[in-house]
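ingest -> validate -> predict -> emit
validate: passed (alphabet ok, no gaps, 451 aa)
predict: started
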Amino acid sequence: MKIIIVGGGKVGVTLAESLRAEDHDIAIVDPDGDVIEYVSTEYDILGIQGSGVCCGDLREAGAERADLLIATSSLDELNILSCVIASRMGTHRCIARVRDPNLTGQLPFMRDKLGLSAMVNPELYAAGEISRIVRMPSAIRVDSFAKGRIDLAEIKVEAESRLCGLKLSMLPSIFKSKLLICAVNRDNDVIIPGGDFELKAGDKIHVTAPHADLASFFKELGMYNQKIRNVMLVGGGRIAYYLTKQLLDSGISVKIIEMDHDRCLELSSAFPKAKIICADGTDQDILISEGLSTADAFVALTGVDEENIILSMYAKQQGAAKVITKINKPTLKQMTESVGLDSLISPKMLTADMITQYVRAVQNSGGSSISTLYKLLDGQVEAIEFVAREGSRVLDVPLFHLQLKPNLLIAGIIRGGKVIIPSGRDCIEAEDSVIVVTANRYFMDLDEILA
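emit:
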């Protein structure tokens, strides 16, 4: 596909890297010449130094024949205008990065009247990810499929765990919960395991299960699964705004520590049930006096990665039960995990995953559509939810008769709202949602799972 990215910030560059890896024809437009030189050289893409609202610059980028334009600048209004102009010039589909809560609900109008195909909101996605982890605190990360009916959770196998030394084929005889271990990270090697695979201490595993079964599994393991009742946030930006709304709606009390007085007034007005502290969240006296050691969960949401990492390390030391850290630089992830911080949230990477999902769905509009896509283990594994369509070669065949590609598992089937953790005897039927976990990246159609 011919794709134009407007804006060479962190989101734009992350998208350029992700989409270029899937062999799309990418052009990027940004007013900063240094950014253009870096991106065009690093990723071998067309760079245009200019404006996303200038017809001449968009024409040079190929807007008259482009399949997709993604506007990712820091200004919502500029992104919307860029999409409107590109749509009028002939670009088939346009996506705008829109972060203002007052604008995100206006997609139907903008789609019908202004030519926008979709809006993406990195901060809203990040808040949703954090909220899922807060509701399942034993997990490092929690993703959901089929409108929340089935979860994919990442957990670490500790030396004293009942999982340690266990072969996967033994799981059904030991645990009552219906689940499937579908991916393992062992010493940074990624494994899609079979039944003879034996778990070891230190493994990070991805478990697929219906939500209730996952909670029961954690209980059977004796892992911390106490309901979180209070959360402390440091940083009162947009993620904090969206997250506070979600947590309060779930009956969880929220305390926000934010330095900016005007922002504190805005948050206090928006969320009268939350406690807003106007103070420096990096001051340890403030953190201690506000009850850090007794917090059920602590979330570091400042605009500086290094501050978030240090705050999270301190919160862990002080006894906060669950610690979640926002980072923007993907290069910090492995280093951060090495100091014991596992639950890391990257709004930029979440956005790249969402747009990659959209692009693949557009490319394969006639086949089995992609409903959801997550990239796991630093992008080495993908978990994809397909909707099986009539005519697919995988229909009505017992799974053990399907010749599947290596390093791939069918991790779940959702049929008429019912979740099936599949065995070899199960079949896929038309209109089923099918969850595929694979180390073979860039699948666009369900039939591509076949060897």
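The first strand starts at residue 2 and ends at 6.
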